[in-house]
Automatic annotation (TrEMBL), chain A:
Domain Aldehyde oxidase/xanthine dehydrogenase a/b hammerhead, residue spans: 36-142
Gene it is expressed from: pucD
SMART domains reported in the protein's UniProt record: Ald_Xan_dh_C
Protein name (record): Xanthine dehydrogenase subunit D
Superkingdom, taxonomy of origin: Bacteria
Keyword Oxidoreductase (UniProt): yes
TrEMBL record, chain B:
Family matches, as PROSITE patterns: 2FE2S_FER_1 (PS00197), 2FE2S_FER_2 (PS51085)
Residue ranges of domain 2Fe-2S ferredoxin-type in the record: 1-78
Protein name stated in the entry: (2Fe-2S)-binding protein
UniProt key word Transferase: no
Keywords of this entry: 2Fe-2S, Iron, Iron-sulfur, Metal-binding, Oxidoreductase
Protein source organism: Catenulispora pinistramenti
Keyword Iron-sulfur: yes
Pfam families per record: Fer2, Fer2_2
Amino acid sequence: MPTRAPDRAPRDLNQSATTGGVGDSPTRPDGPLKVKGEFAYSSDLFMDDMVWGATLRSPHPRALIRSIDFAAALALPGVDAVLTHEDVPGCKLYGLDVRDQPVLAIGEVRHQGEPVALVAADHPETARRALKLIQVDYEVLEPVVDARRALFDPESPRVHPDGNLVRHQPVRVGADVDDPAVRARCAVVVSGEYEVGIQDQAFLGPESGLAVPAEDGGVDLYVATQWMHNDLLQVAPCLGLPEAKVRMTLSGVGGAFGGREDLSMQIHAAMLALRIGKPVKMVYNREESFFGHVHRHPASMKYTYGATAEGKLVFADVEIVLDGGGYTSATSNVVGNAASLGVGPYVVPNIRIDSYGALTNNPPCGAMRGFGAVQACFAYESMMDKLAAALGLDPVTIRQRNAVTQGDKLATGQVVEAPAPVAEMLETLKALPMPAPADTSDLRNLPGSTANTTHGEGVVRGVGYGIGVKNICFSEDFDDYSTARVRLELLGDTVGALVHTAAAEVGQGLITLEAQIARTELGVEQVVIHPADSSVGNAGSSSASRQSYMTGGAVKTACEAVRAAVFARLAEDHGRDYDDLSLVGGKIVSHAEGVIGTLEEVLAAGPIEETREYHHHRTDRMDPFTGQGNSHTQLAFAVHRAVVDVDIELGLIKVVALDLVQDVGKIMNRLSLEGQLHGGSAQGLGLAVMEEIQVRDGKVRNPSFTDYLIPTILDMPPMRMEILENADPRAPYGLRGAGEPPTLSSTPAIAAAIRDATGLDLRRVPIRPEDLTEVPTDA
Amino acid sequence: MRVTFTVNGRRAEADDVWEGESLLYVLRERVGLPGSKNACEQGECGSCTVYLDDVPVCSCLVAAGQVQDREVRTVEGLADGDELDPVQACFIKAGAVQCGFCTPGLLVQAHALIEHNPAPTDPEIREALAGNLCRCTGYEKILDAVREAAAIKAGVA
């Protein structure tokens, strides 16, 4: 048990709703706290005697550390401790998949911003001054910054002793794509080289939390994370503590998008707290946040496609290089996703894909919404447009002629078992009304807006399409199960359900959904969501669009067990069996005999509590040589149509419309769902036209919201959406994960629209003004 | 130094304030009002927006000493007791809150917009909220919320 809790610790969220089951749109249980400013985010935690932790980070992307002298820092009044790698109590390395990341640098740094030392002090400013007093003697080395060189040039320095390759995943289908017989079947062959810049999750709530030393020698950690049990697996060994002595409570999470799947300040704050015996709070500022989490992998991709005169794909030859930066993080699985989804939702009879993940001295990359599928989607959708242009076909037609449908095989040989009406989705999208021409009487409708750069002259409109397919839940034989504990009890004179999981509510609305499922399955109005903590079983990560499926499934299964226990207790009380019972509005109803009892009566003998795990069906690893295998748990599809106005003289872009058709299997909560689709589309828009961590010689040039731009309310157009419900029979309620697919398809749709407007062969996102200001050769 | 000001109608006093501290830090760490948020601390995201004498400002850019004897109203001061301001209620109802980290700043900014312009058009809402970053919602539900709050305040909804 925690020795003592901080002020503003997370608390039960209690909500009563007469409707609000699955399919309704009840509001968020945390909504009232959030609008009153009372919701406890991880940066809001407070204890009277707490001190502030801060991190010294390497200014160099690659250097040896000759010495660290922190005597002056330690002597500064107000400083409680200065720690280096020598003070790490247990294992000195950690990592999401591979333990290759030092808690604090040991003799060498492999990326700019790598943590080197820690300070605890009475005020953040004291801590900042102390950091400046730490003298680190670096021997600066030439950084490895080109992922292709890192992989393929034997002369390249090794970033890690084992070399620079994290994973190479080939995919081989059909005949050799170089076979003249294959080539002979093609009316056209087109090639393209594509690049995706580094995107940042740019969640608004910075990395932060509070570590409280406990009397048992352990520590209580209040943090914002996506996956508490995986944090625990990494944190406890580094602290030299058994997992039972590291108790984690999820504090308010200000967005995540993949960026909180890796650890940030967890071990550091705990080390400081254990060393000095006081609670330690750490809060990154925005600049530090850019160095405090992994980003979306930048990609360099070479594609060649051949097709018949009718536009049917004959072969695909693909090379994808993903730069993982200084440490492994999630790179291996990102490579797997890019490989397995490398040609997207299209039927291709002959395939050669080689997907690689590299280690370099660039910023570390790992999970971000879309996870490897985003990069490939930009390339394969660009190729579909290129092919359409070469054949004189409409971009929608060529997609429809090649789109997978139920029963078809993906590149991995996996059969698409659930409905996949991609061609029909495109038809629906195409039929949505187009936006009116820009009203040039109001500058705000034009690229450049009130900067008054145009009154409509030089502005050209374009339209583009994009399709994305995303794997939902973890793939490749990973059993990413979830656990839920559900308790039904009398709360005063009403019956309430208490739902307890370790699943991270990061803003997506999972807790709303948990309550909806409890209402539907148990027929109660009152549902209390217990704060997520590590005292209940693993829920897996809030990533891969998987929590509705997995934790939703776990809550449903636990509710079913509670319901069965209610019926069993009633049967025991009545001394007879029933086989036709249901729970409706707090009453136990027999189909044959009507109401035979109430929950109040049954629960008078005490609460009923059940804990259940939920596992999805087993998947396969991809074959290491052919990439074949049923590697994905579920597939989800989204299609976007973008309309853009481009000022071709200045290279300014306004996205006028970004319409979406997505199949979600089952609309669990329309309000929350629409928010996910809007937000996911906005992040794709950001990648298309503005978002990039700019890196030169391994150093980040724009670690601020002044220089790293994310879409504002002026950048996002109104969205028309059609949401389809073709159930996946294997998933709870038939649902499909929904958060990621729109992030895939919006980027290529916008890029295609800009190409359509300008006639330029744009091969890189984000598309910058300077990419557009050449007069197109075929204009 | 000591800073004395009025916040949400109450007198507040903060001691031992370091000269470099921002109003945001004083609110969050010294007077127990962490509702205003620390997303960028450089005036780009709007999450820390508060009223300073009726003008919305980024509290991260206001030096603590500047608020001496002045009035500050934060997100914690928008509701009337337990009764939410229509802007707050509409943000919940419209689905404009996801992670909620941008919400306090957006609420203050939207509240100020409607105070000054009771019937804002969409372009006016967009312009007024252009300094408030949100990473979750794509802004569509925020527009819905502000439209509805304006209508309620004008008595037409």
